[in-house]
Each structure stands twice: as structure tokens, then as C-alpha cells.
Design a protein that fits this description.
nine-stranded mixed sheet, 16 helices, globular
């Protein structure tokens, strides 16, 4: 049985960050918590026939800023979901949060509501960098938030950090990492700031470090994390004591997921070689008003299936078993034999005991590697 996850999108935030291209909307009036909770329950009820009696192995509250919602609303939603779909015994439930005072006060309540993993959007511990990123918090807020996470009883938490920030030096980036490591997180998401289309930074580009500085940040940062016994298991994900993010790992292994909420996406395997993708209406107002939340529905073609699998699986440093390709796509590995051989000849992938592993060179040239399978 292909693993099944649940993604819940809570689209509102205090302020839209200039680099953000997610479906997030600044909160301009009172948060419609109860209306949205009921809309989410209506949403999943409509999708449940697609998954029948399958259980879910992880839940992820993303946004926006999910921690704007009250612990009571999160508890109510989880209780109702449990009545609608089976929960795995070792269910991972992650909620994204920001380090601002109003949200920090809710951490204990989130833990009591059933959240067992928090992901804190720190981005940087440098106040100058935070100001350039137009974040609504400061360094001291982040430190207080991390201390509050631990006091609330969370033993598993992620810190979200970016590098390659405006005017950032190698020393500044490493200081961010060292500060994060001081608090002993079980997981780090550490990734480069990129300028996405249709964002404020796309229209008004900031002054970013040159490629040589960014490369040195990456090399020195990865060396530091390795010295502190963090496993680099995905392009931008690091963990200690094998506390992988189960939810994201399911994405990267091309598992199934239901997505509820404004702009959420779903991938459901209906039969071997038959995968359905759904997307929900993006704007929160239209999502709330619509009885049928589905904006688009399509069946993925065989060619697209092969590429999408590789797009996800090749992000994993440990690679994947050859058998997983058939298990997840319903396609024979011969479907990608030609580009796979090209990748092996270029030294971008190695074939080891029925296991395909991207090499260091392949990960460095990941976009070019993926283009082989797109063709």
C-alpha cells in the first residue's frame, strides 16, 4: 500500500514576505477560524471516496502562518478528522509557526491539541538580515520561541533557515547555523534564498551575494553540520538521530497525499499506472464560498509520471530502490532506461545493488540531471 499523508493549508499571514511565492494572504480583518475549519471538513469529506479506508501516516499544517489559528480550533479539526479517516499509530503531525509573541503563547496549547512536531520559521538570527527580509520578528523573538517550544514539551522540532541573504557574508551565514545548533533542534531546513517570479523581490531585486560567496557558505555550512553529526538526507534537509520529516519524505518517495485548504494539491494513486492530481481554489474567499472546492483535476500521463518521480526521488542523498519506481508509478524501469544510462555515464547517478543513488556531482547539477528525464 502506498503511504498516504494529509496536507492542510491555512493561508493567512500577518505580512506577505517579499520572497514568498506560496499561496499566502495578509490578514486584513478578523480570522474566520470556524468558517474555515468547517470548510476544511467539507473539503476532505468530498475527497474521502478517492482513498476509501486508507489511513494517514502524517499531517502537515502549512501556510501562510498556521500558528495564527487557536489551539482550540486545531484540536477541533484533528478530532473531527480522526472520525473521518484512520490515523496511523505513530502519526507525525507538524505545524508551521513564526517566532512572534502572539503565537509563542500558543505553543503549549498546540502540543495539548495533538501537534507533536513544530517547524519554526526563523530564517535568520541576524536582525539586519531579518529587516532586509521584512520579517515581523527579531533575533530575541526566535530565541524566546525556541525556549518556549522546549518548555511546551516538543521533543521534535525543525528550524527553518535561509542563506544567500542580501549582503550576507560567509561568517554571517555560519553564525546563523551555530546559533541554531546551540538549541539542539532535531531537524534543520537550510536552503538558499532564490528570487521567485511574481514576488516583491522579483520586481525589486535585492543585492545578493555573488556565486562564489554562496558556494563557500554551502560548503562551510555542510561541513559544520557534518561535524555536529547532522545527516544531510535531502537537498536542503538535515536531521539528527534520524528524526526525518516523515511528511516531506513521503513527498520525495512519491507517496500519495490529500491536500485540503485554499490552493492545496493532492496526488492519489487510483490503480497501478493511474494517478490523479487535484488542486483546490486558491483565494480563501472563493474557497470558503464554494461547495465544491476543486479547481482542477487531471490524470497524470505516463511520461509526466516518470519525470515527477525522478524530480522528487533524486533529491534524496541515499537515493531509492529500483523497485520503488514501479511501486509508485506502475511503470517498468525500462521506461527511463535511456536517460538513466546517460546519467550513469555522466557520473551523475550510480547503480549499486539495485539501488540508484545521485552522486555529489549529480546533486550539484541536479537541474541538468532532471532535464534528461524531462526529455
Amino acid at each position: 500500500m502506498i503511504p498516504l499523508s494529509l496536507y492542510i493549508h491555512l493561508p493567512w499571514c500577518v505580512r506577505k514576505c517579499p520572497y514568498c511565492d506560496f499561496n499566502s494572504h495578509p490578514l486584513k480583518s478578523e480570522l474566520p477560524e470556524q468558517r474555515y475549519i468547517q470548510a476544511l471538513l467539507q473539503d476532505i469529506s468530498h475527497d474521502l471516496p478517492l482513498v476509501k479506508n486508507r489511513s494517514i501516516s502524517s499531517i502537515f499544517f502549512g501556510g501562510g502562518t498556521p500558528s495564527l489559528f487557536s489551539p482550540d480550533s486545531i484540536f477541533q479539526l484533528l478530532a473531527q478528522l480522526r472520525l473521518k479517516i484512520p490515523f496511523d499509530k505513530h502519526l507525525e503531525i507538524t505545524l508551521e509557526a513564526n517566532p512572534v509573541t502572539a503565537e509563542i503563547s500558543k505553543f503549549s496549547g498546540f502540543h495539548e491539541a495533538g501537534i507533536n512536531r513544530l517547524s519554526l520559521g526563523v530564517q535568520s538570527f541576524n536582525d539586519q538580515s531579518l529587516q532586509l527580509l521584512q520579517r515581523v520578528h527579531h533575533r530575541e523573538h526566535s530565541i524566546h520561541a525556541i525556549e518556549s517550544i522546549r518548555k511546551a514539551g516538543f521533543k521534535n522540532f525543525n528550524l527553518d533557515l535561509m542563506y544567500g541573504l542580501p549582503n550576507q557574508t560567509v561568517e554571517m551565514a555560519l553564525e546563523d547555523l551555530k546559533t541554531a545548533l546551540h538549541f539542539h533542534p532535531t531537524h534543520l531546513s537550510w536552503y538558499q534564498l532564490t528570487i521567485e517570479k511574481n514576488t516583491y523581490f522579483d520586481r525589486y531585486p535585492p543585492h545578493l551575494p555573488d556565486e562564489e560567496i554562496i558556494w563557500n557558505i554551502q560548503i562551510e555550512g555542510e561541513r559544520l553540520l557534518n561535524e555536529r553529526n547532522f545527516e544531510h538526507y535531502e537537498v536542503s534537509a538535515f536531521t539528527k538521530h534520524e528524526q526525518y520529516c516523515k511528511h516531506n519524505l513521503n513527498y520525495w518517495k512519491f507517496g500519495d497525499y490529500l491536500g485540503i485548504g485554499a490552493g492545496a494539491h493532492s496526488k492519489i494513486t487510483l490503480a497501478p499506472n493511474k494517478i490523479l492530481r487535484l488542486s483546490k481554489y486558491k483565494h480563501p474567499d472563493f474557497y470558503l464560498q464554494s461547495n465544491n472546492k476543486i479547481a482542477e483535476q487531471l490524470e497524470v500521463s505516463n511520461e509526466q509520471l516518470a519525470f515527477e518521480f525522478m524530480l522528487n526521488a533524486l533529491r534524496l542523498f541515499q537515493g531509492f530502490d529500483k523497485a520503488l519506481f514501479y511501486q509508485r508509478t506502475g511503470l517498468d524501469l525500462a521506461t527511463i532506461e535511456q536517460p538513466l544510462q546517460q546519467a550513469i555515464e555522466k557520473g551523475w547517478i550510480i547503480d549499486k545493488n539495485q539501488h540508484l543513488i545521485p552522486t555529489e556531482l549529480g546533486l550539484r547539477w541536479l537541474n541538468e540531471l532532471l532535464e534528461l528525464f524531462l526529455k
